[in-house]
Backbone:
Protein backbone atom coordinates (compact mmCIF):
# COMPACT_ATOMS: atom_id res chain seq x y z
CA UNK A 1 0.00 0.00 0.00
CA UNK A 2 1.43 3.44 -0.90
CA UNK A 3 2.67 5.53 2.03
CA UNK A 4 0.93 8.64 0.68
CA UNK A 5 -2.30 8.94 2.70
CA UNK A 6 -4.03 10.91 -0.08
CA UNK A 7 -3.18 8.13 -2.51
CA UNK A 8 -4.51 5.53 -0.07
CA UNK A 9 -7.79 7.43 0.13
CA UNK A 10 -7.91 7.77 -3.65
CA UNK A 11 -7.42 4.03 -4.13
CA UNK A 12 -10.21 3.37 -1.63
CA UNK A 13 -12.42 5.78 -3.58
CA UNK A 14 -11.76 3.94 -6.86
CA UNK A 15 -12.93 0.73 -5.21
CA UNK A 16 -16.18 2.39 -4.09
CA UNK A 17 -16.59 3.94 -7.53
CA UNK A 18 -16.07 0.54 -9.16
CA UNK A 19 -18.99 -0.92 -7.22
CA UNK A 20 -21.23 1.95 -8.30
CA UNK A 21 -20.16 1.82 -11.92
CA UNK A 22 -20.51 -1.96 -12.03
CA UNK A 23 -24.15 -1.54 -11.03
CA UNK A 24 -24.63 1.07 -13.77
CA UNK A 25 -23.08 -1.15 -16.42
CA UNK A 26 -25.20 -4.08 -15.21
CA UNK A 27 -28.36 -1.97 -15.41
CA UNK A 28 -27.52 -0.81 -18.95
CA UNK A 29 -26.03 -4.05 -20.28
CA UNK A 30 -28.81 -4.52 -22.87
CA UNK A 31 -27.57 -1.38 -24.62
CA UNK A 32 -23.84 -1.94 -24.30
CA UNK A 33 -21.48 -3.67 -26.69
CA UNK A 34 -18.33 -3.12 -24.65
CA UNK A 35 -15.95 -6.07 -24.66
CA UNK A 36 -12.30 -6.82 -24.01
CA UNK A 37 -10.15 -5.46 -26.79
CA UNK A 38 -12.53 -2.66 -27.80
CA UNK A 39 -10.54 0.56 -27.59
CA UNK A 40 -12.78 3.07 -29.39
CA UNK A 41 -13.21 5.24 -26.30
CA UNK A 42 -9.42 5.37 -25.96
CA UNK A 43 -8.51 6.60 -29.43
CA UNK A 44 -10.02 10.07 -29.67
CA UNK A 45 -9.91 12.26 -26.58
CA UNK A 46 -7.61 14.55 -24.56
CA UNK A 47 -7.79 12.55 -21.28
CA UNK A 48 -7.79 15.00 -18.36
CA UNK A 49 -5.87 13.49 -15.45
CA UNK A 50 -5.12 14.97 -12.04
CA UNK A 51 -1.80 14.78 -10.24
CA UNK A 52 -3.24 12.34 -7.70
CA UNK A 53 -4.63 10.07 -10.41
CA UNK A 54 -1.30 10.05 -12.19
CA UNK A 55 0.49 8.99 -9.01
CA UNK A 56 -1.61 5.84 -9.15
CA UNK A 57 -1.13 5.43 -12.90
CA UNK A 58 2.63 5.72 -12.37
CA UNK A 59 2.50 2.67 -10.09
CA UNK A 60 0.85 0.75 -12.92
CA UNK A 61 3.47 1.96 -15.39
CA UNK A 62 6.30 0.83 -13.13
CA UNK A 63 4.71 -2.58 -12.64
CA UNK A 64 3.39 -3.32 -16.13
CA UNK A 65 5.77 -1.66 -18.59
CA UNK A 66 9.24 -2.91 -19.43
CA UNK A 67 12.07 -0.42 -19.84
CA UNK A 68 11.76 -0.75 -23.62
CA UNK A 69 7.99 -0.19 -23.52
CA UNK A 70 8.46 2.83 -21.27
CA UNK A 71 10.97 4.29 -23.72
CA UNK A 72 8.52 3.87 -26.60
CA UNK A 73 5.76 5.39 -24.46
CA UNK A 74 7.94 8.42 -23.78
CA UNK A 75 8.69 8.88 -27.49
CA UNK A 76 4.99 8.70 -28.33
CA UNK A 77 4.07 11.18 -25.60
CA UNK A 78 6.75 13.64 -26.74
CA UNK A 79 5.45 13.45 -30.31
CA UNK A 80 1.86 14.06 -29.16
CA UNK A 81 2.90 17.18 -27.23
CA UNK A 82 4.86 18.49 -30.21
CA UNK A 83 1.89 17.93 -32.51
CA UNK A 84 -0.33 19.71 -29.99
CA UNK A 85 1.95 22.74 -30.19
CA UNK A 86 1.53 22.75 -33.97
CA UNK A 87 -2.24 22.43 -33.53
CA UNK A 88 -2.26 25.37 -31.08
CA UNK A 89 -0.80 27.71 -33.70
CA UNK A 90 -4.08 27.66 -35.61
CA UNK A 91 -6.54 26.62 -32.91
CA UNK A 92 -6.22 28.09 -29.40
CA UNK A 93 -8.81 25.70 -27.93
CA UNK A 94 -6.60 22.83 -26.82
CA UNK A 95 -9.62 20.85 -25.63
CA UNK A 96 -10.31 20.22 -29.30
CA UNK A 97 -6.96 18.49 -29.70
CA UNK A 98 -7.48 14.75 -29.39
CA UNK A 99 -5.20 11.75 -29.72
CA UNK A 100 -5.05 8.01 -29.13
CA UNK A 101 -4.13 7.18 -25.55
CA UNK A 102 -0.44 6.23 -25.50
CA UNK A 103 -1.12 3.71 -22.73
CA UNK A 104 -2.91 1.42 -25.18
CA UNK A 105 -0.99 -1.79 -25.83
CA UNK A 106 -2.35 -3.85 -28.73
CA UNK A 107 -5.84 -2.53 -28.10
CA UNK A 108 -5.76 -3.06 -24.34
CA UNK A 109 -5.09 -0.58 -21.54
CA UNK A 110 -1.59 -1.11 -20.21
CA UNK A 111 -2.57 0.19 -16.76
CA UNK A 112 -6.20 -0.94 -16.62
CA UNK A 113 -6.43 -1.44 -12.86
CA UNK A 114 -4.78 1.95 -12.33
CA UNK A 115 -6.58 3.90 -15.06
CA UNK A 116 -7.87 7.45 -14.63
CA UNK A 117 -11.37 8.35 -13.43
CA UNK A 118 -12.68 9.42 -16.85
CA UNK A 119 -11.67 6.05 -18.26
CA UNK A 120 -13.74 4.09 -15.77
CA UNK A 121 -17.16 5.26 -17.00
CA UNK A 122 -16.53 4.96 -20.75
CA UNK A 123 -19.57 3.63 -22.57
CA UNK A 124 -22.35 5.18 -20.48
CA UNK A 125 -24.43 8.32 -21.09
CA UNK A 126 -23.68 11.19 -18.73
CA UNK A 127 -24.90 14.72 -18.04
CA UNK A 128 -22.97 17.68 -19.39
CA UNK A 129 -22.23 19.93 -16.41
CA UNK A 130 -21.38 22.93 -18.59
CA UNK A 131 -24.44 22.83 -20.85
CA UNK A 132 -27.83 22.46 -19.12
CA UNK A 133 -30.19 19.91 -20.68
CA UNK A 134 -27.35 18.43 -22.74
CA UNK A 135 -26.30 14.83 -22.36
CA UNK A 136 -23.18 13.16 -23.70
CA UNK A 137 -23.58 9.81 -25.39
CA UNK A 138 -20.53 7.57 -25.83
CA UNK A 139 -18.61 8.20 -29.04
CA UNK A 140 -19.14 4.60 -30.11
CA UNK A 141 -22.91 5.16 -30.43
CA UNK A 142 -22.26 6.97 -33.71
CA UNK A 143 -20.30 3.93 -34.87
CA UNK A 144 -23.18 1.51 -34.38
CA UNK A 145 -22.27 0.29 -30.91
CA UNK A 146 -23.56 1.33 -27.46
CA UNK A 147 -27.20 2.47 -27.48
CA UNK A 148 -27.23 2.66 -31.29
CA UNK A 149 -29.84 -0.12 -31.66
CA UNK A 150 -32.52 2.06 -30.11
CA UNK A 151 -31.38 5.48 -31.32
CA UNK A 152 -33.43 7.15 -34.04
CA UNK A 153 -31.22 9.29 -36.28
CA UNK A 154 -34.18 11.25 -37.64
CA UNK A 155 -35.66 12.33 -34.31
CA UNK A 156 -32.31 12.32 -32.46
CA UNK A 157 -34.09 10.47 -29.65
CA UNK A 158 -34.14 6.99 -28.23
CA UNK A 159 -36.99 5.01 -29.76
CA UNK A 160 -39.37 3.00 -27.58
CA UNK A 161 -40.56 1.22 -30.72
CA UNK A 162 -37.05 0.02 -31.53
CA UNK A 163 -36.56 -1.12 -27.96
CA UNK A 164 -39.83 -3.09 -28.00
CA UNK A 165 -38.96 -4.68 -31.34
CA UNK A 166 -35.67 -5.88 -29.86
CA UNK A 167 -37.32 -7.09 -26.67
CA UNK A 168 -35.35 -4.64 -24.57
CA UNK A 169 -37.00 -3.93 -21.24
CA UNK A 170 -34.41 -1.61 -19.71
CA UNK A 171 -34.54 2.17 -20.07
CA UNK A 172 -31.55 4.25 -21.19
CA UNK A 173 -30.31 6.17 -18.16
CA UNK A 174 -28.26 9.33 -17.89
CA UNK A 175 -25.75 9.45 -15.06
CA UNK A 176 -23.87 12.18 -13.20
CA UNK A 177 -20.47 11.01 -14.39
CA UNK A 178 -18.75 14.12 -15.68
CA UNK A 179 -15.13 14.49 -14.62
CA UNK A 180 -15.90 17.29 -12.18
CA UNK A 181 -18.59 15.18 -10.50
CA UNK A 182 -16.27 12.17 -10.21
CA UNK A 183 -13.75 14.38 -8.41
CA UNK A 184 -16.40 16.03 -6.25
CA UNK A 185 -17.73 12.64 -5.15
CA UNK A 186 -14.31 11.75 -3.75
CA UNK A 187 -15.20 13.70 -0.62
CA UNK A 188 -12.76 16.59 -0.57
CA UNK A 189 -9.60 14.78 -1.69
CA UNK A 190 -6.92 17.13 -2.99
CA UNK A 191 -6.39 15.95 -6.57
CA UNK A 192 -3.76 18.58 -7.37
CA UNK A 193 -3.25 20.02 -10.82
CA UNK A 194 -5.20 18.66 -13.78
CA UNK A 195 -3.37 18.20 -17.07
CA UNK A 196 -3.60 16.14 -20.21
CA UNK A 197 -2.38 12.59 -19.58
CA UNK A 198 0.54 12.95 -21.98
CA UNK A 199 1.80 15.99 -20.08
CA UNK A 200 2.24 13.93 -16.93
CA UNK A 201 3.99 11.18 -18.89
CA UNK A 202 6.36 13.67 -20.50
CA UNK A 203 7.11 15.43 -17.21
CA UNK A 204 8.40 12.10 -15.84
CA UNK A 205 11.20 12.20 -18.45
CA UNK A 206 14.34 13.81 -16.89
CA UNK A 207 15.30 15.81 -20.02
CA UNK A 208 11.80 16.39 -21.37
CA UNK A 209 12.31 20.11 -22.03
CA UNK A 210 15.29 19.38 -24.27
CA UNK A 211 13.37 16.68 -26.12
CA UNK A 212 10.36 18.93 -26.66
CA UNK A 213 12.57 21.57 -28.25
CA UNK A 214 13.85 19.14 -30.86
CA UNK A 215 12.07 19.52 -34.19
CA UNK A 216 9.75 16.84 -35.46
CA UNK A 217 10.95 14.96 -38.55
CA UNK A 218 9.18 16.13 -41.73
CA UNK A 219 5.98 14.31 -42.63
CA UNK A 220 6.34 11.78 -45.48
CA UNK A 221 5.51 13.22 -48.89
CA UNK A 222 2.14 12.34 -50.35
CA UNK A 223 1.58 11.52 -53.98
Residues:
Amino acid sequence: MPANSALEKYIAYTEILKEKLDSYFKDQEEFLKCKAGCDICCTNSYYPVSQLEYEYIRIGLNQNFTDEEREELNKTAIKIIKNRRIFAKTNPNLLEYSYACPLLVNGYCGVYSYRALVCRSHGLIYKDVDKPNKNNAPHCMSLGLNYSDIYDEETKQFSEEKAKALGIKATPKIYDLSYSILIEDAGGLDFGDIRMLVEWIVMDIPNYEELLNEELPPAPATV
Observations:
- The helical segments are 5-27, 51-64, 67-88, 117-120, 160-165, 179-184, 197-203, 208-212.
- The beta strands are 48-50, 104-105, 108-109, 125-127, 135-136, 151-152, 157-158, 174-175, 194-196.
